[in-house]
Amino acid sequence: MSKILIIAEHLDGKLNPSTAKCVSAAKAVGGDIHIAVLAADPTAIAAEAARIEGVGKVLAVANAANAHAIAQVLAPQIAKLAEGYSHVFGPSTTFGKDLMPCVAALLGSAQVSDVMTVESSHVFKRPIYAGNAIITVEAPSDRPVVATIRVASWAAAGEGGSAAVENASVEASLPTHTKFVELKQGKSDRPDLQSAPRVVSGGRGVGSAENFSIIFSLADKLGAGVGASRAAVDAGYVPNDMQVGQTGKIIAPELYVAIGISGAIQHLTGIKDAGTIVAINKDAEAPIFEVADIGLVGDLFQIVPELEKAL
User: Fold this and answer.
1) Domains in the chain, ordered, with CATH?
2) Where is the Electron transfer flavoprotein alpha/beta-subunit N-terminal domain (predicted)?
3) Cα(186)–Cα(278) distance, rounded to whole angstroms?
4) Taking the complete model, does pTM exceed 0.90, yes or no?
């Protein structure tokens, strides 16, 4: 039977929803599911993780060195914790993409990235070629399976669990060549882009940073997160933490509204799991209309204010 260790992602004392999505993937594998919480003070985070349905145990690792998530510091501890586990899962987020390759290297395993579906305990499906194809991969059975879970492809496991929380001490040699300096992140009252049920994104067609106010205004009416295409980011309209797509954030909102976005394949990769896609573009031949559930051809500067007024 599989024994799965999930590495919790958290920030400012709160568990990231990506952790519960990793639990859903672990439940598809089957077996015992444990979550490891590494922090300076993991108490509150571990208690939150213990409430996720399907989790059997939470390992709380308290260490001042874990105050900030640094892959080179966390990985040696996780490699020690992973002894006896058949699988080690982390989210395919910025956190997981940074951390899990280090864990895989220490465990001598080849990482399976962006797991979309579980076929069996060692067989998985994942996207390749910017999402244009799905490949089935089989991990060796003689090594621990180290994998990142494509969070846009999995619903979060529900609450209602009551897992035991166990304080764990880890004897691992931690590096001194890598250290935390500072964290710079955008501040916003809008919903987080990766977990928002509704997202409004703007593209090159918006025209300028000043014009992007039309996107923010509509998003506020919808209570939505705000994203952007790479073209809009490269043009300097908005910061790169708002980029949606292959080289940005992979999201799966219930509603995705693409405004002035042509729909390059790299962008479509980031929204392929969205529930309903709405596209507004003046170019009737724009690729975005091939994937949109609802499409409207016209001038966004006329359509969006009318839509906002109707809302």
Assistant:
1) 3-167 (3.40.50.620), 198-310 (3.40.50.1220)
2) 4-184
3) 26
4) no
